[in-house]
Amino acid sequence: MSASLAAMLRKSTTLYQERWVARSETEYATPARAGIVEEHIGYWEAIARAVETQDFEELMSFARTAGRMQARDGRDLADAVRRTIAATNLIELALLEVNDGDVPAIDIVNEIGDVRGLIAMAVAEGYKAEVAERDAPAEARERLRAAMQRRRDRAATTTLLAGSEIAPLYEGGMRLHFVESGKLRLYNLLPNGRTITLSILSENDVFLQWRAESTSLSCLCAEAMHDSTVLTVDGDALAEIVAQQPVAAIDVITQFAQRLTESQVLIEDLLNNSVNIRLYRTLLQLAQQFGRLDAGATLIDVPLTHQRLADMIGSNRVTVTRKLHELQERGIVEGRRNATLAVRRMDRLEALATGAETD
């Protein structure tokens, strides 16, 4: 049955697209945007591959990403699941219409029903994961931001143009930075002069620069990936704010510990893993953190020049360019405008990153 269903799925692609456009125009009273239609065709292709191979991991990854995107768009969970069910209902209708009678209609309904259930659960899983990650520290960080803003006499607001940097801490002490807007690449300077990225920070993220004594050097820096605004406090004002906001202080300490752990992991990566693995892992993490569905792929919504990617993994631009070309030739990623990348096969990128698939 599955082989027949997969063939019918591919046969009914055009009909499904027409139905989705018509539904968008009648139910939502707006012309269907090309990107939305292509997103649903991407779903369609993932379903067909899953049915053909009986490997549903790519489809589940696609659906979890869709759930995360709908959470980021501000939809509630019920609406996210409803939209998912509506899309799979159209799949069912299209299949029934192209069925030439070889497959009993009840078999189509039952099998698509099973797939619908898997997709809906994965969408809900992605949605809940996004909400949990976003909302858990949100209230504490908002209180931290308010406390920092109240100390305008001791706090500094800095506007960073894209490409501008927050330099290392050259004097002893601590400095707390709160990202009010934009995106920052948090990185460490390496002894060979290269850099390696610890994480990408967005609005409401915080990071701490710390230098124990004048003879040591803090190598933690940040680069604005977009135009960004950062609120900064240090010295006695930092101690006062942390004392007033113990929950936020725990959040800051947790993030600081996380940065140290990430540094250790990245050092181990540099020592033990090839440039290829480091690149695959970085692309996968960026796609999971900043990906949004676009034209049947996961668009990494941050500017990524080849040099910036090289800086992220402690490599050089020539090597990164060569590896990206190889990934493009294999249909795993593709270049987009404005120095962005899109992942067309998240399942294969994940397999490369984990070593399940070799180069």
Could you walk me through the main structural features you see in this protein, from its secondary elements to its overall organization?
There is one protein chain. The chain is an alpha+beta fold and 359 residues long. It has 3 domains: 2-135, Globin-like; 138-271, Jelly Rolls, CATH 2.60.120.10; 275-354, Winged helix-like DNA-binding domain superfamily/Winged helix DNA-binding domain (Arc Repressor Mutant, subunit A, Orthogonal Bundle), CATH 1.10.10.10. It is 58% helix and 18% strand. The chain has 13 helices and 12 strands. The chain has helices spanning 2-11, 13-27, 34-53, 57-72, 77-98, 105-135, 138-150, 235-244, 246-272, 275-290, 306-313, 317-329, 346-354; strands at 156-160, 165-166, 173-181, 184-189, 195-201, 206-211, 220-224, 228-234, 291-294, 297-300, 333-336, 340-343. The strands form 3 sheets. The chain has a 4-stranded antiparallel sheet with strand order 1-8-3-6. Strands 2-7-4-5 form a 4-stranded antiparallel sheet, with helices on both faces. Strands 9-10-12-11 form a 4-stranded antiparallel sheet. A hairpin with a 2-residue loop joins strand 9 (291-294) and strand 10. Helix 3 (34-53) runs antiparallel to helix 4 (57-72). The longest helix is centred in the middle third of the chain and has 31 residues, at 105-135. The protein is elongated, with a radius of gyration of 24 Å. The protein starts with a helix and ends in a 5-residue tail after the last helix. This is HTH crp-type domain-containing protein. GO terms for molecular function: DNA binding; DNA-binding transcription factor activity. InterPro entries: cNMP-bd_dom, cNMP-bd_dom_sf, HTH_CRP, RmlC-like_jellyroll, Tscrpt_reg_HTH_Crp-type_CS, WH-like_DNA-bd_sf, WH_DNA-bd_sf.
